[in-house]
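Hi Y.,

Following your request, here is the sequence exactly as I used it, all 430 residues.
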Amino acid sequence: MLDDYQQLVDEISAALGAPATLENRDFGLIAFGAQDGGRDLDESDEADGADEPALDPVRTRSILRRRSTAAVRAWFEGFGIARAQAPLRIPPDPGAGVFMGRICLPVRHRGVVHGYVWLLDDGHLSDLELGGPAGPPDPRLARAMETAARIGVLLAAEARADEELGRMLRDLLTGEPGGRDTARTALRAALRGAADGPLALVAVTPWAPGDGADAADYRSARLPSPPGVAAVCVLAGAGPAVPAGPMASLAALVRLRASTALDPARTAAEHLLRSPEAAAPAAAPGSGAGTGRGGGFAGVSEPRRGLDDLPAAWPEALAAARAARADPRLGPVAEWSAIGPYRLLAALPAQAGPDPAVRALLEPSHAELARTAEAFLDCAGQASRTAQALGIHRQTLYYRLSRVEQLTGLDLDAGEDRLLLHMALKSARL
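Below is the corresponding structure, written out as tokens. Let me know if you'd prefer a different format.
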């Protein structure tokens, strides 16, 4: 399939005499033609880009890193490329590193944009007629758009295959028992040898469609698929911390190189967190001790051998993502094996509210006291360590802890009371 894309991109480059680059609609690189008279790019080109006018740094980074940055993506999308039905001319912007203008050929199939062909314009395409009310497009450009339409057919076929894999994964993780067996069999046939290899699940939460889209409809939308990801799907309202409606969680099945190495899963999680859908604002936990940070969080399950145990791996990945959101020391990507007490807390059924003993302490007006109590318990009750961690005098610490005891009625010299308070504060974060 990659050879097919490369051949079609080369056709467009040859027809218009300009370097062409094909990216999917998430700005992931698929294929590219040589720039600067046929010279291929290497790592030294990026460093030399500022001194070599024939090179465009944005294109160079896209080729070397296989993806454009979020800032570059926002710049181009601001010209309406996702809605365009015909070629668009994009002006240069040296401030954004876009040293050359571009002509964007939207790659569409049956009205849906699946990607973009970018043509670098160092000036020799400035007279190319794009078509419109003033007249028809240049014949060369018309042929290029015909080729882009052929690319659209291929990308649409891939999208349908990805959607089918995602449906199988969703049914396997959250379907009824009978449906899970069917989905497992179908997914094993689709993945072939990869189905028996070491695998891990990644959860990204929240995963928000934006623009008021409905989560159920959004699950059928084209989802990012980083390298190493075998299948990806959206699960609406997955887990007690994920509300129903537009907010949802994304599940990604990742192939591992070895059962002891989760690096591919972490890399995939970091990639997915750069997606706009993972950038929804996150509310601060009610304890006042949370991060209040915007953006998504990701969790990685323990490795699994084959598909049979994946339904048990999904709660691990989701719990790790929730823990990453709750505790900034863990995030933005957390592994199930590294979240400590959150493994136990995430498995508890959702409660109507905090434990009565600590309810008053969790009010926003007492956020500083809650933070102090949690730091004290995290430091195993060692006053000097706690004061140093909080940057306060020990007498200030003792005063705050006495206020905590008054509010809660708990004795911080008693082990069981400490355990109750510590778990209640951690639960509030989740």
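The chain has three domains: 2-158, 175-347, 356-429.

Thanks again,
Q.
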